[in-house]
Design brief:
The chain has 241 residues and is an alpha/beta fold. 32% of the residues lie in helices and 27% in strands. Bound molecules: S-adenosylmethionine.
């Protein structure tokens, strides 16, 4: 059953014209009046729907029953990602969404190759958010993880609230430094986790120290040096599956 994200709120029993992005996808698949599809708006659950009209530029659907199904991870894993350059960040967002990331915060660090500001940053953020939407359509998630606007690591750390003392949240820094504990062990039973990692060139010692000062604990993914995007995926596989 084809699944489409709808950027407008959905309601059972309503007839509506699909927003442009969803309409384009339906047209690409050459669906016909009478064909069934699944719609979700990110507010929870999904809706059965039927195509009622295929116009040149518009697609009309009848929205049917709401199904209160969620396919979220039991633990909320918030990724804070030293952005890898080129298409590697697209790959990271796609895989992180499939694996259940709750949110993705791209950060620029001292050794980042990718530097974004202004309109370029806005465009890249919109592209990554669209990648997350497409991954949700594919994998069955009905909640789209937010891909936040890129920030410098220093700004992101400065805006971070004091660490929760309730044991429900954990702040974990993926680090190659000696003494880092295994990731799963450090996460324990925390229900919400921030996982921070560096870009291609890693974080500087000063950046890692700044994260530790904000309540992050250094954690390891084993003895091999993983690429930045592999580190995100490995952490999610360990914490969210
Ligand atoms: N030469 C860089 C360095 O020494 O930091 C390598 C950086 S690595 C390609 C990118 C990021 O992935 C690192 O900053 C770290 O956060 C994370 N990472 C990679 N392998 C890891 C491992 N085995 N354990 C923990 N974190 C790892």
């Amino acid at each position: 059953m084809p699944r489409f994200h709808c950027s407008i709120p959905l309601q059972s029993g309503v007839a509506l014209a699909l927003p442009d992005a969803a309409a384009r996808h339906v047209q690409v698949l050459r669906l016909q009046p009478g064909d069934a599809l699944t719609l979700f708006d990110g507010q929870g659950g999904e809706y059965a729907a039927t195509v009622t009209r295929m116009g040149r530029g518009d697609v009309q659907v009848q929205v049917g029953a709401h199904v209160a199904v969620e396919r979220e991870a039991a633990r909320a894993v918030h990724l804070v990602v030293g952005m890898p350059a080129n298409e590697r960040m697209d790959w990271l967002v796609e895989k992180a969404t499939e694996l259940g990331a709750a949110s993705i915060q791209p950060v620029a660090a001292a050794r980042s190759v990718l530097r974004l500001a202004g309109e370029r940053a806005d465009k890249r953020q919109a592209r990554w958010q669209a990648v997350a939407v497409a991954a949700c359509e594919q994998c069955g998630r009905n909640r789209v993880p937010v891909v936040h606007a890129p920030l410098s690591l220093a700004d992101w750390l400065a805006a971070l609230p004091a660490a929760p003392g309730d044991g429900l949240g954990a702040r974990l820094l993926l680090s190659l430094r000696a003494g880092s504990r295994p990731l799963a062990q450090a996460a324990g039973a925390a229900l919400a986790v921030h996982v921070l990692h560096g870009p291609e060139g890693g974080l500087t010692v000063q950046e890692e120290d700044a994260a530790l000062a904000r309540g992050f604990a250094p954690v390891s993914l084993g003895p091999r040096v993983l690429r930045a995007e592999t580190a995100s995926v490995a952490a999610l596989a360990c914490l969210a599956l």
